[in-house]
Design goal:
InterPro entries: LolA/LolB/LppX (IPR029046), Sporulation_related (IPR052944). The protein has 6 helices and 23 strands. The chain is mainly β and 360 residues long.
Length: 360
Amino acid sequence: MKGYKWIGAFSLAASLFTGGCQDAQTFSSEDVVTKMLEGNKAVGSYYAEGIMNEYEGDKKIRESTIMEWHDAKTGKRRVEIRSGNNVTRSVNDGKQIITYDEALKTAFRLDAADVGEMGAGTPKEQLIGILDKVKNTHKIEVVGEDTVINLPVHHVKATMQEKGSLFGDMDLWADQKTWLVLKSSSTIGENKVNFEYTKLDQSPTFDEKTFVLDLPQDVKITSLSDINPAKKVSLEEAEAAMKAPFYYWESSSEVVLAGIELNEWKGEINRNELTLNYTKGDVPYFSLSVFPAPKEEIGEGLLGEKPLQIRGIKGSYMEAIRSVMWDEKGLRYTVMLEHPDLTVEQMVKLAEEMKSSEKK
């Protein structure tokens, strides 16, 4: 589903308000998030078809057609993407997601609970996860009203307030009734993606085969969790996997180390990586990733990175994904701020309390 991930990144704010629209009206970030979530609850079943064009400069590099089936009663959804001679099909039955690539003749399965909002499959669901990530980096405003496939829409513009944002400038046209993004355009540097629905049936009929993939007999479904499963390890085993001591937080009255996982990546990545999960009051607070530092220095080639001093070391912070990163003694540390109330300033302060895994 390589091409389809673009849609979520360029569909920023499908719903902004429940009443009428005034041109050039600007909403606060809090209002945008609140209204969008309220609108999402009212989205019903639909079948839709759309077209997506990707550009580098003025050159169109890819054209894809997309078909979607969404059953609001069961939460099931199906997505088909046709690009060139290839077709990718994906079905989410509420319990698992199975994706089949026709050209590669490969099928993968993933538990639906492991995907979350960012991987929900349709522009509407994906934009929920993105909206909160850009509220501090973009100016969001309603610039007018328009019509897409004979439906009245609100034209929403999201403009970067600082250069280098991960999500770029966006224009969106959201259906005034269903809050579905019917058309979107996003520009990041020389790259541009346009998406538009060409058909929308809001009273679809589904049968028992709609949300079932009919795979060829010679195609075996592979579970993504089985390809490179994470192993739960002890602190001593984690240190052995890194072949060196590393810094971490011990459990305290402030945070609790809920567990340590080890991924032994092969292929192009070819490294061991630790993930330490921390909670506060039994709620996920942040996670710490540790792996051997790559040759690329912090800040090279990543959009939206801002310099940050942490533990007396030059690091970076990516606001769009709430991630803090730095290199220390040959290891790269990445902290993902998971709790919405945890600020980067608090995280920097907490970092001063990290201890070495090396036994004294």
